[in-house]
Amino acid sequence: MALFVQIESAEAVENIEKILAVDGIDGVFVGPSDLAASMGVLGRQSHPDVVASVRRVITAATAAGMPVGVNAFDPEVARGYASDGVDFLLVGADVAMLARGSENLAAAWVPAEDESGRASS
Questions:
Q1: Which residues are CB-contacts of 10 (< 8 A; sequence separation ≥ 6)?
Q2: How far is 111 from 100, CA to CA, in rounded Å?
Q3: Using one digit for the tens of pLDDT, what is the confidence trace for 8-26?
Q4: Is residue 24 part of a domain?
Q5: The pLDDT value given to residue 39
């Protein structure tokens, strides 16, 4: 069994070295959505300050010899985290995938409206 802690607040990032020093912790996982909210940039997981905070955690965990993972919805940001050396990377979420699939179906089947508000073909 392994014990991973989630880093999901600005306070946790500020205290990452202390958190990593707790006996029994085997690794960390960063949740950038909640982290962004705690930093005042709700819904902006790719905000430069959020990305910098995630990178701070990656650096600290790597230095401590602990595996670190992160969730990244933006492909460019995900590639950056991969280059930074994360041990595992989640690149999607069920809600986002369902939303994109629904948008694609709607675009294919729901007629667009013209400027008058009438369905166009």
A1: 35, 38, 39, 53
A2: 18
A3: 999 999 999 999 999 999 9
A4: yes
A5: 95
Q: How many CB atoms lie within 10 A of CB 92?
A: 12
- Residue 98 is assigned to a structural domain of this protein: no
Domain range holding 31?
A: 4-92
Residues 28-72 pLDDT 10s: 999 999 999 999 999 889 999 999 999 999 999 999 999 999 999
Is the sign of the CA dihedral 64, 86, 71, 56 positive or negative? positive
What predicted TM-score, i.e. pTM, was given to this entire model?
0.79
